[in-house]
Specification:
heterodimer; A: about 160 residues; alpha/beta; Rossmann fold; five-stranded parallel beta sheet; two-stranded parallel sheet; 5 helices; B: about 350 residues; alpha+beta; SH3 type barrels; Transferase(Phosphotransferase), domain 1; seven-stranded mixed beta sheet; three-stranded antiparallel beta sheet; about 30% helix
Amino acid sequence: MTAPSERNLLIAVDASENSGKAVDYVGRLLGGVGGDFHITLLHLILEPDADYFPSEEEHRIWIDEKLEESVRLLEGYKNVLITYGFDADRIRVFTPIRFCPSVSECILEQKDILEYGTIVVGRKGLSPKEEILLGSVSSRLVKLAKNCTVWVVNA
Amino acid sequence: MESLPLMSHNIPSQESLRELCSPWLASLSPQHVFRIYTDTSDFYAIEYGDILLLDHRLYLVRHNAKEGRFGLDDEVKFWVKRVIDLQDGVTRITKLVFFERFTATIGGIPFECYRSPRKEARILDLVKGHPNFMQGFWVTDDKDNVVRILDVIYGQSLAAMIADIHLDHETYFYQRLPDILDHYIECVEAIAFLHRHGEKHGDIRRDHILIDHDSGRYRWIDFDYNFLHRENMFGYDLFGLGNVLMYLVGKGDILTKEVRENHPTAFQRLYAEDVNIVFNNRVANLRKIFPYIPKPLNDILLRFSKGSSVFYDDIDPFLTDLREARAFFQQPENERTSP
């Protein structure tokens, strides 16, 4: 038996190819198998410090553009899952705008709000210098996640 | 020093300004007309002999600051001006708001960078009284520009200090480096303090540490750089700290080209993975050149080398390793055996 929360999958995505592969993987694995799976497609819009914008107007325009991009992105991923046999009403899309000191920590915050049992992310395959300068979301998620499973899908 | 009691927009007369400024304006003509700025947006227009009126306080503008590095001619920073605080006669530095956004490429990785006056102002508040940071305060002008007013630190940069040491490496290593490392560890602790408070320095370089001539302390300057970070907002700070450490341990950058010419035997022992992870012309595995470098210290450098698969993603383990490596120097000389 699995707890209900274990059937709640949180797929954290961005516009990268590896995110697309993570969505595709979940679709291929679980699409059409029945069960009580609920999927949330999470796209964090990473908000910079206020100083990034010379004016409030530019800030507003930036948010509008990012929201528009996000809606298009998530709609595309949702359609992929539907194609694999998921019911549309079991797929939720979510686009919070956050200042995230760490993306993985922001993802884990969302996980705690709705009690997801599984988090799915794509793995970028960073080079060592990218890892030292930028940090790896998937590595840190695996390190920090508690009381949930993390699936890291290799791109 | 007399000061004028100023209410908001209470503009002093030319005569009173002339009297107040007289000790510093010998080169100006008696007919000089003081231009008074309460809005600093157009910083290019603000020149020598002008007056800034900020938060009821008058500042006489002297000249623009300059910054130079790597032998390039000094670049004039028009938004950074030396001023005389006419309330106490002290020389200070004002940093005016300069919006700048650009993409910097580091090791082939693009970073979207920008100047952030508010970040620097926040950090100035946070580090008030901290001996390892520049000190100052901030005010807003009539257009809500965040103007930072900084104390001048008299002293040379860490880079200049190291360049001025004329000792062979081994003598430097045993006689000077232990003390330099103590100061450097204080600087790392200062950055750890920022990180604990959710702030990054943003531009850690060896010329952003000044050695205070009065106190002898090493002090961080210039925290207004910011960039859009990805997973680890402190990764670039940590990388910068690693580079500074490499510079200190090597007594300068140890370039592969120079090793080939000056240490041909050591050069034959160098592998591709022994260089800096980003700056591939700098040697990170310095123990191959200077075998008396203890392994614990060299192991830290290797974390920043091309061959590393383990990185510091947090400043605390870096500090712990540094302190352990430093402890090696406290052992009596006859007990020091490099592990």
